[in-house]
Design goal:
Helices cover 51% and strands 4% of the residues. The protein is mainly α. Among the domains are: 15-48, no CATH class; 105-212, Cytochrome p450-Terp, domain 2 (Orthogonal Bundle). Strand 1 and strand 2 (19-22) form a beta hairpin. Helix 2 runs antiparallel to helix 7 (154-166), helix 2 crosses helix 10 and helix 5 (105-119) packs antiparallel against helix 10 (210-233). The longest helix is centred in the last third of the chain and has 24 residues, at 210-233.
């Protein structure tokens, strides 16, 4: 380390007294010119995104903002709000609940799509069998415990993807992979693509690395977590647990 300034090295921001530049562009040239979704893409990838691809990216962000207070991340945030913590603490509580099982399926679906692309779609059945064995019979991005007949968000997202393929904005190879997975899984019963599978199609078509896709999902879901936290804070309810107070849990000890 030749200089103390080398302690942190970044290509994201340059800042001096009276001057801020992000990815080499003065902040004054970004404010009012880039919308928030553009800024997210620009900051995380360092690249510009055209309007049609931005439309797809925004759709993925919008589709994943919320799925109700039964979702552990939302429930945890709402419970924490009743305990008197600050809004940022509740937001962090919810986000910290997003892991491999609750919140990780989008990244896992993206990894699966890339694996199929690398090994060939003709090998999809063997890849799916291997994936099922590693994930207790589940294939990430397909099927839903609430939306048994189909995730209501998926058709709209895939329509947007199909339009982008027709316009020549994206290749369409990953939506083809996604639909082939759905076809192969739906042998005895239909196992439709869910929100995670659909947004993974979009992120794959946009060239987004899988771990970053999880971060983008967390960013999207944080909007719902914030909304639920703020709503809960208006209720003046104290110390709400995961179950109603008149509900008795099962004791299994001696």
């Amino acid at each position: 380390m030749s200089d103390i300034s080398d302690w942190w090295s970044t290509e994201i921001i340059e800042m001096e007294p009276g001057s801020i530049s992000l990815r080499g562009i003065p902040i004054k040239n970004l404010i009012g010119k880039k919308n928030f979704s553009e800024m997210i893409w620009f900051m995380t990838t360092g690249k510009e995104i055209n309007k049609k691809k931005l439309h797809l990216f925004e759709a993925a962000l919008v589709a994943a903002v919320d799925h109700g207070p039964q979702a552990p991340s939302i429930a945890a945030a709402r419970m924490s709000a009743t305990c008197g913590v600050s809004i940022n603490n509740s937001l962090a509580t919810g986000i910290n609940m997003l892991g491999d099982i609750h919140g990780g399926a989008g990244q896992q679906a993206l990894e699966l799509y890339f694996q199929i692309e690398n090994q060939g779609i003709e090998n999809i059945r063997n890849i799916l069998l291997e994936n099922k064995s590693l994930n207790n019979g589940f294939v990430p991005g397909f099927g839903h415990r609430f939306h048994k007949t189909g995730d209501p968000r998926t058709p709209r997202l895939l329509d947007l993807v199909d339009n982008a393929v027709k316009d020549g904005e994206i290749s369409g190879k990953f939506v083809k992979i996604g639909r082939q997975i759905e076809k192969d899984l739906s042998n005895k019963k239909v196992i439709p693509m869910n929100i995670d599978g659909a947004t993974a199609v979009i992120y794959a078509e946009l060239g987004c690395p899988p771990p970053l896709a999880r971060g983008l999902f967390c960013l999207s879901r944080s909007v719902g977590i914030l909304a639920h936290t703020w709503e809960q804070m208006q209720k003046n309810e104290r110390i709400k647990g995961p179950t109603p107070p008149n509900y008795k849990w099962s004791y299994k000890g001696k």
